[in-house]
Write a structure and sequence with these properties.
GO biological process, one term: Mo-molybdopterin cofactor biosynthetic process
Largest sheet: 5 strands, antiparallel
Number of strands: 5
Catalytic activity: (8S)-3',8-cyclo-7,8-dihydroguanosine 5'-triphosphate = cyclic pyranopterin phosphate + diphosphate
Oligomer: single chain
Pfam family, one: MoaC
Subunit structure: Homohexamer; trimer of dimers.
Distance between the termini: 22 Å
Function: Catalyzes the conversion of (8S)-3',8-cyclo-7,8-dihydroguanosine 5'-triphosphate to cyclic pyranopterin monophosphate (cPMP).
CATH topology: Alpha-Beta Plaits
Radius of gyration: 18 Å
CATH architecture: 2-Layer Sandwich
Helix content: 25-40%
Shape: elongated
Mean pLDDT: 92
C-alpha cells in the first residue's frame, strides 16, 4: 500500500514539518516496546535486595517511564501530542545481570503510540542507569525496540 502524499514530514518546499493527521479517523492505537539494562552481577544484587544508594530503582524507573511517555511530544521533534489513555511500564529482574523493561501505551486517536512506548522504555532505562551509575559505570542499555503495535491504516505489527 502506497503512502498518501499528505502523510509526510516534508512541506511543499521540502522543509521538515509535522504530518497533518486531521483527516485520519481516530481509532484505538496500542504499542508495546521493550529494552533492557545489563549491569554487573554485584549491581544487580543491590537492586534485587533493595539496597541501591538512591532508593527504589525499579519504582522510580517505572514512574519515570510513565512520565516520559506523557512528554514524548516535548522530546521528539515533529511528534504529535497525544492524550494517552493507558501507560504501563514493567521492570523485571532477570538474574544474574539484567533489568528487562516493557512499556504498553494506548490511545484513541488519529496516530499511533509507538514513539510513546519507545520513550517510556528509554526513560525508564536511563533512570535505572542514573540511579546505579555510581556503582556500575559499565552498564549497557540495549535492544530498545517496538515489539507490537495495533490500530491505524498501517495495520498490526508483531516482532518476530
Amino acid at each position: 500500500m502506497g503512502r498518501e502524499p499528505s502523510l509526510t514530514h516534508f512541506d511543499a518546499t521540502g522543509a521538515a514539518a509535522m504530518v497533518d493527521v486531521s483527516d485520519k479517523a481516530p481509532t484505538l492505537r496500542i504499542a508495546t516496546a521493550r529494552g533492557r539494562v545489563v549491569m554487573l552481577p554485584a549491581t544487580f544484587a543491590l537492586v534485587e535486595a533493595g539496597r541501591a544508594g538512591k532508593g527504589d530503582v525499579l519504582g522510580v524507573a517505572r514512574l519515570a517511564g510513565i512520565m516520559g511517555a506523557k512528554r514524548t511530544a516535548d522530546l521528539i521533534p515533529l511528534c504529535h501530542p497525544l492524550a494517552l489513555s493507558k501507560v504501563t511500564v514493567d521492570l523485571t529482574l532477570v538474574a544474574p545481570d539484567t533489568v528487562e523493561i516493557e512499556a504498553l501505551v494506548k490511545t484513541t486517536g488519529p496516530t499511533g503510540v509507538e514513539m510513546e512506548a519507545l520513550t517510556a522504555v528509554s526513560i525508564a532505562a536511563l533512570t535505572v542507569y542514573d540511579m546505579l551509575k555510581a556503582a556500575d559505570r559499565a552498564m549497557r542499555i540495549e535492544d530498545i525496540r517496538v515489539v507490537q503495535k495495533s490500530g491505524g491504516r498501517s495495520g498490526d505489527f508483531h516482532a518476530p
